[in-house]
TrEMBL record:
The keyword Metal-binding applies. Homohexamer. Coiled coil: none annotated. The keyword Cell division does not apply. Belongs to the GTP cyclohydrolase I type 2/NIF3 family. This is GTP cyclohydrolase 1 type 2 homolog.
Length: 279
C-alpha cells in the first residue's frame, strides 16, 4: 500500500515547494494525504468537469499543476460551482495536490518539457532562480535554445500551432521583422510576458509564452521580438509528463497504485476567424 504522502515526499525531492514564487500556493490543497492511494490522476487544472470525471474513474488522488485555491474561500455556498466542486472532492475522499511555479522552475520540469516539445537544442535557463534546496544545482524559470533550422515569423507561428496542437494562436511581429530568420527561441510556460526583456537581453529572436496583453505586446514588437502566444493551456503537457515520471518512481519504489491522465480539455477559449481576408 502507498500513501499520498509517499508520492508527495518523492515529488518534493524533484521540485521542492521552496522553488515556488512568493505569491503562489503549491502543495496540499485539500484532503488527507495520509490515506492509501489506489488511483492517481494527473491534470493541468482542477475544474468541476475534471472532478466529475475523477469521481467516475474512482480516483482518490489528483495531482495538478494549477492550484485549486489561489484565493481563500470566505463563504462555502455550494450553489457556486467552485464551492460545489470542493464539496464533491471532500465527499468522495479525493486528495488534491498542486505543483505550480516550483514545477516551472525545477530542472526537468515544465519548461524543459516545453523546450523539448519545440525541439530546441543547447538550452539554458532563461531566468536564474538560485540553487535547488535539495540537489544544490542551479535552477530557473523558462528556457532559451536553438531552433532546428531557420524559419520566418509566419513559418514559426505555423510550426508552434502544429507542435502544440492548438486550433489557433496569437503572434506578433512588425512588418520589418516578418522575414527575419528565427534561430534562437525562448519559452516560458503560463503567463510570461513580464520576462520578455530577459528574452531580448539573451538574444532571443522569438519568445513563446501565454496570456500576452495589449500594452506588453506593443513593447515586445517595438523591440523587434517575434512573440508566439499559443495560450496557457499548452502546459497540459504536464499530464503525460507527470504520469511518465510517476510511473518511473512507481517501478523504482514498488508502489501499488494506478496512474491515469485527465482527458477533459480545460482550455476555456474558442477561436473564431475571419476567412474573408487577413489583417
Amino acid at each position: 500500500m502507498t500513501t499520498g504522502n509517499e508520492l508527495i515526499h518523492r515529488f518534493e525531492q524533484y521540485a521542492s515547494p521552496k522553488l515556488a514564487e512568493n505569491w503562489d500556493n503549491p502543495g496540499l490543497q485539500l484532503g488527507n494525504p495520509d490515506k492509501t492511494i489506489k488511483r492517481v490522476m494527473t491534470t493541468l487544472d482542477v475544474r468541476p468537469e475534471v472532478v466529475r470525471e475523477a469521481v467516475k474513474q474512482d480516483v482518490d488522488f489528483i495531482f495538478a499543476h494549477h492550484p485549486v485555491m489561489f484565493h481563500p474561500a470566505k463563504k462555502l455556498d455550494t450553489r457556486m460551482p467552485q464551492n460545489e466542486m470542493y464539496a464533491q472532492l471532500l465527499s468522495h475522499g479525493i486528495t488534491v495536490y498542486a505543483a505550480h511555479t516550483n514545477l516551472d522552475t525545477a530542472n526537468g520540469g515544465m519548461n524543459d518539457w516545453l523546450a523539448s516539445q519545440l525541439r530546441l537544442t543547447n538550452t539554458e535557463r532563461l531566468i536564474d532562480s538560485g540553487l535547488d534546496p535539495v540537489s544544490r544545482k542551479k535552477v530557473g524559470m523558462g528556457r532559451i535554445g536553438t531552433l532546428n533550422g531557420s524559419m520566418n515569423a509566419r513559418e514559426f507561428a505555423q510550426y508552434c500551432m502544429r507542435i502544440f496542437g492548438v486550433k489557433g494562436l496569437r503572434w506578433l511581429a512588425t512588418s520589418s521583422d516578418m522575414d527575419k530568420p528565427i534561430h534562437r527561441v525562448a519559452v516560458l510556460g503560463g503567463a510570461g510576458q513580464d520576462f520578455w526583456h530577459v528574452a531580448v537581453d539573451k538574444g532571443a529572436d522569438a519568445y513563446v509564452t501565454g496570456d500576452v496583453t495589449y500594452h506588453f505586446a506593443h513593447d515586445m514588437v517595438a523591440n523587434h521580438l517575434t512573440v508566439i502566444d499559443p495560450g496557457h493551456h499548452i502546459e497540459a503537457i504536464c499530464e503525460s509528463q507527470l504520469a511518465k515520471l510517476f510511473g518511473k518512481w512507481k517501478k523504482e519504489n514498488n508502489w501499488d497504485f494506478e496512474i491515469i491522465q485527465n482527458r477533459i480539455n480545460t482550455d476555456p477559449f474558442n477561436f473564431m476567424l475571419n476567412n474573408e481576408g487577413e489583417n
